[in-house]
Inverse folding.
């Protein structure tokens, strides 16, 4: 199959999932065409079967805001006509599904039809979808997509509440390559650069948006540190980073917290971690949590959104009501004082990630692609 993937190229969950899916599809013999305004962050090299098409937005004095969606639609049309794509896969509803729909309307005048699959990732529904400025357009794009998927049962339910008359949504979970995130011996990871012997490592990875509650990450760390020596590694960047840095300074823990930005890969940081912190207001799935589990790292987060579909309380991590940093910190500290308990959770975390491995999830997309293409040919 020739598959066009429309995505955000950033380190956020939807862009990472879309990129990893494209790479996996190419490995399985398909021809993949990424369409975005810059190369995807997780696309380290362009190998056989993978193509990248840049969306260039003209800069005219007439526009206060560059018309990205229109430029994206035009690029989609051009790629479909030139590369003879079989299907378009839009990751994140806005503006990708609406741009794909506009491109399909343009192509219809030329007698060309390409089915559109839209994958919903979270805030495109739970945040953007609730905004009156976008609701009608988003509703129309979802209603006229040829297929819809959501990354969790939670997100499927939330979408159906907002838009009850759209087509049925299939749940296809995010996936991970366990071998890429496999635990490594202590002497081979980055741990020695951040810790002293006997100290534990807590980790958080995100785009530092308000929904990630990075202030809670710091509060959990402070409470755990009061009971057992530990360090905190913060990977990523975003608008809430200065708030987290200020909280760290207030507690006088500058030397124990490392803000690493995007300087290292997630698997390198997770490989030297003892517990992963993801206390978000709402996670539609929690891809970084899955990557932590694959690394043999238990996860602590809130009972919100789709995270309980990934993390099993007291088995592969700990879940608590939103805001209960005390519960999470107490559980983590108690686990650090019980080496056998920590090792059991590590093993079960790793084992649970195998249910989300690439070989199980990617074929679900392939099967859906085949059904959509076959139906469009009828």
């Amino acid at each position: 199959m020739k598959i066009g993937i429309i995505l955000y190229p950033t380190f956020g969950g939807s862009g990472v999932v879309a990129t990893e899916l494209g790479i996996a599809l190419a490995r399985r013999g398909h021809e993949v065409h990424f369409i975005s305004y810059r190369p995807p962050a997780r696309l380290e090299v362009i190998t056989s079967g993978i193509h990248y098409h840049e969306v260039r937005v003209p800069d005219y004095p007439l526009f206060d805001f560059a018309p990205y969606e229109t430029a994206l639609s035009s690029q989609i049309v051009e790629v479909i006509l030139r590369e003879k794509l079989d299907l378009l896969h839009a990751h994140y509803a806005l503006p990708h599904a609406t741009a794909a729909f506009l491109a399909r309307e343009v192509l219809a005048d030329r007698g060309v039809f390409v089915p559109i699959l839209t994958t919903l990732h979270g805030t495109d529904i739970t945040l953007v979808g609730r905004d009156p400025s976008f609701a009608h357009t988003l509703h129309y794009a979802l209603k006229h997509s040829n297929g819809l998927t959501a990354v969790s049962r939670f997100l499927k339910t939330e979408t159906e509440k907002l838009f009850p008359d759209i087509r049925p949504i299939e749940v296809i979970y995010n996936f991970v390559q366990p071998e890429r995130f496999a635990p490594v011996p202590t002497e081979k990871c980055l741990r020695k650069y951040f810790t002293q012997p006997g100290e534990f490592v807590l980790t958080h990875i995100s785009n530092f948006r308000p929904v990630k509650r990075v202030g809670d990450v710091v509060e959990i760390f402070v409470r755990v540190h009061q009971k057992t020596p530990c360090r905190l590694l913060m990977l990523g960047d975003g608008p809430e980073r200065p708030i987290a840095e200020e909280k760290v300074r207030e507690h006088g823990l500058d030397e124990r917290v490392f803000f690493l930005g995007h300087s290292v890969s997630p698997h390198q940081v997770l490989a030297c971690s003892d517990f992963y912190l993801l206390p978000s207001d709402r996670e539609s799935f929690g891809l970084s949590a899955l990557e932590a589990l694959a690394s043999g790292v238990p996860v602590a987060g809130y009972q919100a959104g789709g995270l309980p579909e990934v993390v099993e309380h007291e088995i592969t991590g700990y879940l608590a009501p939103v805001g209960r940093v005390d519960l999470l910190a107490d559980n983590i500290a108690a686990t650090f004082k019980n080496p056998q308990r920590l090792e059991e959770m590590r093993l079960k975390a790793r084992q649970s990630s195998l249910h989300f491995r690439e070989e199980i999830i990617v074929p679900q997309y392939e099967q859906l692609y085949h059904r959509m293409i076959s139906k469009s040919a009828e």
